[in-house]
Here is the input.
Amino acid sequence: MTLLHGAEPFLIDEAIGRITRALIPDAAELVMSRDVLEAREAGAEGIVRAAQTFPWGVARRVVIARGVETLGSKQAEPLVEYLGQPNPATALLLAVPQILASSHWLLKALPAASVVEVPRLSGRSLIGWLRAHAATEGLELAEDAAQLLVTLVGEEPAALAAELGKAALAGGADNRRIGVAEIRAVVGEHRAREIFELTRAVELRDPGSALPLLDRLLSAGEETAAQLGSPVTRVRLLAILAACLVTAAAVSVSGLIGFVGLMVPHLARLWFGPDNRLLVPASALLGALILIVADTLARVLLAPTQIPVGVITAIAGGPCFLWLFAVRGDEAGAS
Here is the structure.
């Protein structure tokens, strides 16, 4: 018995598929030994009858029950009784597309070891899942290509999986490696569709939908920003000017501290993904943390003599920057 609950139905279905294939690898046997039931139609009694049915010609049966969370505690009594004494020849998988409250009867009826909460993925965990999902499909997805796909499509696993298939086809029928070029081949469709979706969200005055769409479109590059009416050249010039002034003011106060600006954004992108809503504050906090650690080391290592902080950041930053450069080079070569 296993209960899988979480806010991402696609991830739950994928987990059920993996469990089912692990229990019954043979596709022909799977057809004869798997039942998929909806609780609203079958009821608790129907689910129990299916789970109590012994396998015929195979070692195990798999019963997948959906919608059991909608049953009231009184309606679910036959199922609760079965969960206390399950059929060892049946693997009962309960799929619940929402996070259950701790007081729900399902969580009380099952042992903690049988409950799996499927988390919502974001940042590095989402990119890792996307690359693993590609591997199960026999595809090799470069990390920078995965980051670009998340930036363009968003964080919905079902949409990412669908666009991954399109990107694979963009490279040709025999292509098994997906890089940035294959991802960009499906960008045009998303740009056109999301521009219309953004226009509709603005018209409906729906900031919850408009802001994520705008963030993804602006992250797609200067061409999309220009299509949205942004004065790209002027904004770039003003941004460079502002960055130079802020940097000059900081250096005039604290002195030259190198490598922090080179290391931190790349490290933050590796750990937190390409979403600028998370990446910008994460870079600021990580930069401050690295400077605090470097300043502490500068004061302690040769106390009472204080080493310049820039020396510490250069000693740590040089090898780190070379490592990042090598990693990016390997990924570019692979794609």
Q: What stands out?
A: The longest strand covers residues 90-96. Residues 309-334 form the longest helix (26 residues). Residues 232-334 form one domain. The chain has 16 helices and seven strands.
